[in-house]
Design goal:
This protein is α/β, with parallel strands linked by helices and about 450 residues long. The protein folds into 2 domains: about 25-40 and about 270-435, 3-Layer(aba) Sandwich (Rossmann fold), CATH 3.40.50.300; about 60-265, GI Alpha 1, domain 2-like (Orthogonal Bundle). Helices cover about 50% and strands about 10% of the residues. It is built from 18 helices and 8 strands. Strands 4-5-1-6-7-8 form a 6-stranded mixed sheet, sandwiched between helices. A two-stranded antiparallel sheet has the order 2-3. Strand 4 (about 275-280) and strand 5 (about 285-290) form a beta hairpin. The chain is elongated, with a radius of gyration of 27 Å. Bound molecules: guanosine-5'-triphosphate and magnesium ion (MG). Guanosine-5'-triphosphate binds near residues 42, 241, 294 and 361. It holds the Pfam family G-alpha. Keywords: GTP-binding, Magnesium, Metal-binding, Nucleotide-binding, Transducer. One of its GO terms (molecular function) is metal ion binding.
């Protein structure tokens, strides 16, 4: 081969290599991005998926809206049932009033008699209503009566003992004096019937409606001061986040012609029990987004998705720092989320996977800080109730879970039920992935 021929064949070979490399890159770019939404139960994964549908797709189909209608009504029944069950578990009498909200002699014997209960109930409700209208936010009012002292260390994830102040002792003593579980009156009767009703009977098909009587019963139940007090202690037992919203919109939701709004759908709750895959095209890049169930029983299904994952959005309900797990009342929810996060980021399948951490429910977190001190649940926290300080404490806790010094974890503070805020966050996450700015996203 002459010198000229040799040079020419090397030039051709290089040109072919360059062409092959660019073709490989082009094909890789065309390959859909595999994105997993992971996190523990009720952290907000499905809500983020709903937002993706609203932002990057055509939103909800009429059939989906109809399904959401049924689940919203089911949510309503479930919330009332949960509260009715907890009224007895926490020994709270219907019509309960705290000693400081009514001018009465605490030693005066109170016969467990319906009229008396009703009188106290309406008195107390007026008080409750006044205090609700005085407060800036319904959630603040919900939390402001919740006083917890003497909570010990969460070592091992448990929020162990807690001594409630006089309010719960007083509730328990009134509970006995009012007749305990057999308390008389239309609201206690309704509570008992809800408590006994199996959830499976709350089926709501397309043409089924809530009766006018049921709406009145729900309203009377919700407005009862004892139920309001029980609601104020809901972080002790786990109540759907949407409870207050549903109760406030009871008459609209209960109307026969009710069609859920976008907010109703975003705030509704339906536990995920099967892995779902949704495809989106965002600026010419195809995404395969997988949503999974986050409760303990669901997590064993996650492993089937672990191959070739480009990115994981790990969602943590940071507002749940004062709550225990649904599945295990001895484990704090944020501690559980941290443990799961640790096992995901240090998993061998995700060495080259980008991990994006969403500290979600930031709206509720901000509200809770002033009424539910972080140090009551995380004794190592020595800071103030300032948002920046508190969130940094939790962020550091999650960053420290990463044992790979080469890995960078991108994080966002999110409010998944707010479309505007979520759009900004998701745009930034997708832009990062799409620009193949992999290092900045923590992706290799
Ligand atoms: N206030 C508020 N509520 C939220 C936020 N994110 C989610 N929620 C509500 O929290 C509840 C649980 O959200 P989901 O999206 O169902 O949680 P999940 O992670 O999919 O739960 P599993 O399917 O059990 O794993 C729903 O009622 C949501 O409306 C948020 O940022 N703020
Ligand atoms: Mg879900």
């Amino acid at each position: 081969m002459t010198y000229a021929e040799d040079t020419e064949s090397r030039r051709i070979s290089r040109a072919i290599d360059t062409q092959l490399t660019s073709e490989r890159r082009r094909l890789e770019a065309l390959r859909p991005v595999k994105l997993l939404l992971l996190g523990t139960g009720e952290s907000g994964k499905s809500t983020i998926l709903k937002q993706m549908k609203l932002i990057y797709d055509t939103g909800f189909s009429p059939e989906e809206i109809q399904t959401y209608r049924s689940s919203i009504i089911l949510n309503l029944f479930s919330c009332v049932k949960t509260l009715a069950v907890q009224m007895d578990n926490l020994k709270i009498p219907y019509g309960f009033i705290t000693p400081d909200t009514v001018d009465s002699d605490p030693d005066e014997p109170l016969p467990p008699q319906s009229n008396n209960v009703r009188r106290r109930s309406s008195l107390a409700f007026d008080e409750t209503r006044q205090s609700l209208s005085r407060s800036k936010s319904p959630v603040i009012s919900r939390l402001s009566t919740y006083v917890v002292t003497g909570v010990d260390s969460y070592g091992g994830g448990a929020r162990k003992g807690c001594n409630y102040t006089l309010q719960s002792q007083d509730a328990a003593s009134q509970y006995e004096r009012f007749g305990g579980i057999n308390q008389i009156g239309s609201i206690p009767d309704f509570g008992r019937s809800m408590k006994a009703m199996p959830l499976s009977t709350f089926g709501f098909g397309k043409d089924e409606i809530i009766t006018a009587q049921q709406i009145d019963d729900f309203e009377g139940f919700w407005n009862d001061s004892g139920v309001q007090y029980c609601f104020s202690r809901s972080s002790e037992f786990g109540l759907m986040e949407c409870c207050e919203y549903l109760m406030k919109n009871l008459r609209r939701i209960g109307a026969p012609e009710y069609i859920p709004t976008k907010d109703d759908i975003l705030l509704s709750r339906l536990k995920t029990t099967a892995i779902s895959e949704t495809r989106f095209k965002i600026k010419d890049v195809e995404y395969r987004v997988f949503d999974v169930g986050g409760q303990r029983s669901q997590r064993k299904k996650w492993a089937s998705l672990f191959d070739d994952v480009n990115a994981i959005i790990f969602v943590v309900a940071i507002s749940s720092y004062d709550q225990v797990c649904y599945e295990d009342h001895s484990v704090n929810r944020v501690v559980e989320a941290l443990q799961v996060f640790k096992s995901i980021i240090n998993h061998s399948a995700f060495v080259n996977t980008g991990i994006i951490l969403f500290l979600n429910k930031i709206d509720l977190f901000k509200i809770k800080l002033n009424v539910s001190p972080v140090s009551d649940y995380f004794p190592s926290y020595k800071g103030t109730s300032r948002f920046e300080e508190s969130i940094e404490y939790f962020l550091e806790m999650f960053r420290a879970a990463n044992t790979d010094p080469e890995r960078r974890i991108q994080h966002h503070l999110t409010w998944a039920t707010d479309t505007k805020q979520t759009r900004k966050v998701l745009d930034s996450v997708c832009k990062c992935i799409q620009e193949a700015n992999l290092k900045d996203c923590g992706l290799e």
